[in-house]
Amino acid sequence: MLTDIRLITVKEFHQMFDAGILSDSERVELIAGQIIKMAAKGAPHCATVTRLWKLLEARLGDRVLVRSQEPVQLSDYSEPEPDIAVLRPEPLYYEDRHPIPSDIYLLIEVADTTLNKDCQVKAISYGQAGISDYWVLDINSRQLHVFRDPDLDGYRTHEVLSDRDALAPIAFPDVNLNVREMLRPQTNDLNS
Q: Which of 24, 59, 73, 128 has a CA between 20 and 30 Å from the CA of residue 186?
């Protein structure tokens, strides 16, 4: 393991934008002290994020605040931008700060080209931060990776659900979500 790596703090990350070292047009996020390039968002990815956002808003209503592709601050060294963050409602809509782990009910990443990064790098980071419920929706394989029981190595449990399965967020056991409704309808779904 390299010991002479200099990690970037969230404060320094923001200062890089303020100083023009990084521009607002660059798609980067800070994970575990490292600046990571974000994948380009194709049409299927964007449509799935929108579908998830609308589904969660409809099912959870005013019980939560659902944000899409906005930063969450996990620690002094991590400020990723998950595709979906299901948060505790906050009167100012987090105007004075980014949400922190105690504000987060559920994080979801949508994977088309980023499955390995989402299931490995991000799962470790989210687990270490204590995020109790983290999902990765694999739109290519039509599967949902469910990570729960966070620990210092990431998560103790990782379950893979098919598009025939359903589950409830840990914080809302009364809200059942079908994996199929999170995904693009298949041709036979549109005809029925």
A: 59
